[in-house]
Amino acid sequence: MTKRFLRLAAAAAIAVGLSAPAGAQFRNEITHSVVPCQGNGPAVWIQVSGIEGSTGTMRIQLYPGTSADWLETGRWINRIEVPARAGSMQVCMPVPRPGNYAIAIRHDKNNNGRTDITSDGGGMSNNPSINIFNLGKPSIDKTRFSIGREVLPMSIRMRYL
Fold first, then answer.
1. Were 45 and a residue from 15, 37, 74, 149 both cysteine, which residue would form a disulfide, CB within 3.0 to 4.6 Å?
2. 106 CB burial (10 A radius; 0-12, 13-18, 19+)
């Protein structure tokens, strides 16, 4: 291989690395486990409240804390899906490393895999207000949080129309 090819390959690798948090791997579908929240972290121990009904699925997704990634299709880092339980439930979301992240939760009440705006519920880290002008997508500045190597407790309130 030529030196020029190696320089181009190195530049391409750096450019790809800059598009996501260092070492981030997207689209990890993981099984829910409380084990990461019983150790030193990093993990987020989420208390989800206001769940309307025990039908369907709760989908919890961890995103990088950047506006380019927030709520973009396929740009989530970890996804956990669990059966919905009316009222409240706890979910442990492992975090790959200390940094800035955001969490989005969707309650797919009829389990059809689509967002039904008139029946499904949603919630986000920091519980941003949702109104007619920003339905479903508050800015990353309102949902981003920082985590070190700890287990971070977080409360997320579900909202339904």
1. 37
2. buried
* Closest listed residue to residue 47, CA positions, set 35, 34, 56: 34
Residues 62-75 have pLDDT tens digits of 999 999 999 999 99
Residue 4 phi, psi (nearest 5): -60, -45
Alpha-carbon span 139 to 90, nearest angstrom? 25
37 C-beta neighbours (distance < 10 Å), count: 19
Per-residue DSSP letters for 40-100? Answer: S-SEEEEEEEEE--S-SEEEEEEEESSTTTTT-TT--SEEEEEE--SEEEEEEEE-SSSEE
136: left (phi over 0), alpha (psi -120 to 50) or beta: left
Which has the closest alpha carbon to 90: 131, 42, 44?
44
Give the integer Cα–Cα distance in Å for 17 and 22.
6
Distance (Å, whole) CA 97 – CA 30: 16
Residue that has been written with the tokens 């949603």 in this structure? 122
pTM for the model stands at: 0.83
Determine the pLDDT at residue 51.
98
